[in-house]
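Following up on my earlier thread - several people asked me to post the actual chain instead of describing it. Fair enough. Here it is, all 168 residues.
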Amino acid sequence: MLPPRHLKREGIEEDKIYSVGNAMIESLIMASKKVQESKILQKMGLKRREYSLVTLHRPSNVDHRETFKEIFKALHKIAEGIPVVFPAHPRTKKRMKEFNFPDYKYNNGLFMTDPVSYFDFLSLEMNAKFMLTDSGGVQEETAFLKYRVLLSGKIQKGQLLLLKVPML
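Reply from S.P.:
Thanks for posting it. Predicted structure:
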């Protein structure tokens, strides 16, 4: 949002200028108590900071078979060292089916689930050791929460970027 002085200079009356913040972050803050009530970790047999979390749905990552295949190779490599929880987006699951990728729930440390509720997802996000995501919203949330996140854009040759953000 432009600072009010710029808007005033443009002729906008002061009583018409509102500072509204970030709706996503405001929702995250308001949801924090509900998130603490989530039982998703117990249901999935997970322990705080002993798993990683993945979200993928962007066309550049899931619409091209070879790119998606490379991402899966990277996920399997990560899963050799730490369990990877992957609540698969409907768009991602659709592509997996089209590409004849295995439809599995658990495979050598990679645990795929159906999408989970907002509160359960936030609980998974807040308790993961780190995340891999291509979601702009998740990137915003993890930045606000100061959690580690691996960002995936158009991944070439399986390269991933680790942002060093301090853990809470």
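Residues 154-168 have pLDDT under 50 and may be disordered. That should answer part of your original question.
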